[in-house]
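Q: How would the structure tokens look for this protein?
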Amino acid sequence: MGVMASHSAPQPPQDRQHGVATTSDGSTAGSGWQHGSSASAPSTGSPKLPWVLVAMLTALCLGLGAMLGAQSSELKRLRTQASAQPTGATSAPAASIAPPSQNPEAVAAMKNLPRRDANDPTAQGGVDAPVVMIEWSDYRCPFCSVWSRETRPKLQPYIDNGSLRIEHRDLVLFGDQSLNASLAARAAGLQGKYWEFYDAVHQAAPTNGHPEIKDADLQAFAKKAGVPDLAKFTKDSKSAAVREAVAKDNTEARSLGISGTPFFVVNTTPLSGAQPAEVFAQVIESNGGKK
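A: Here is the predicted structure in token form.
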């Protein structure tokens, strides 16, 4: 199968997020790419944790859940206001997201999530940016593709002016093909083409369903991304180091209780699903970012 052109995305369901419970592919047929399999997510081999750490992570998960619940009605209101704007309106609705009561352990954990590694090929933006947005996504998640096509380009000005850093994390939900895509993206990153590969996959994705991503497709995406050494790309995608990096991301996400994609933490604000750009802009600017 060759690389496809991007599609304009329809309005997805309200939460615009895919979770573990949606791994069955039988309900929604993808357009363009063939329908994928319903393989379960691979085990990440997370080790057993000391009881003290388990207690802290439990508190973190409860805190994240409380924050998401507190923000849910406000995010719905923002989307309603945005859709109600008159035709031709160019500005976002004037609204604010009131900071919810936050669990101290959850806040401390979120502050420690950014890696700020200058040599991280999976990150965009300066290591000293005041705002760090962490994105967990799966390459076969249609809502991740919607977000990458519709929203992320609108945040580029914040990256360009030094306000925002985006750090991508893998959360493999849809089986071996998702895992292989994550491994391939990491391999492309070793040749400086991580985000080009990321864009190639999401631009080619159908507007719904979980696409099949076969080995030939990964090679095609690598070519489109401009990966210079395809033999090295293939070798690196099978390396233990690359597999360990993807597993580390998955372990981190699951330890935080994240079970759906896309999912974001912007400094200490969690956002669930492919929210509109206006929502992300508001959170970025409330944390000191400037467009």
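The first helix runs from residue 51 to 83.

The domain at 47-81+97-175+240-286 is CATH 3.40.30.10 (Glutaredoxin).

Upvote if useful.
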